[in-house]
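Sorry to interrupt, but I need a hand with the structure work. Can you supply me with one protein entry, sequence and fold together? No commentary is needed, just the two lines. Leave the record below and I will have a look.
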Amino acid sequence: MSGIVAAFATEPALEQALAGLRADRIGAIETYTPKALEADKEGTGSPLPLMIFIAGIVGAAAMFALETYADVVNWPVNVGGRPAFSWPAFVPIAFEFGILCAMTTGIVGYLVVNRLPRLWEPIDECDAMRQAMRAEWVVAVRNDDRREIERARRILLSLHPLSIEEISPALAEIPA
């Protein structure tokens, strides 16, 4: 997959470039910025909190069911006349297992959502990326369609970026 990378000096310049690219329906846009953009904060959000909540509830319910099965059905033990289904004893372990499931889902989900670990990508070889997290506001457009890349190049050139460069297609084919 090839593409282009453009660097801008200020956040408003990058936002103007993003507005132009989105208005022309250019897809596969990525930004690399020193701080989060205000427009990105208003997005739909991550599915991760819901996944964590569901994993915690399912984990706690599954552990409660396992404890109930083990203590009531599979291996009932009469200890001092207590009832067979003594649920208060099951709650702490079920809660802890729910927390364990939620945290595991959070860690794995974070890695999946952010496509990590990525040790190297072709975009890392672009000169604009060296300043992307410190001083410059960078936008990358990736696509296999050369016409769309050229449309994006025209839009970005009209906004006078600090630099604009190609993501080398030869580098993009190196296996990760």
Notes: Residues 18 and 139 are 8 Å apart (CA to CA).
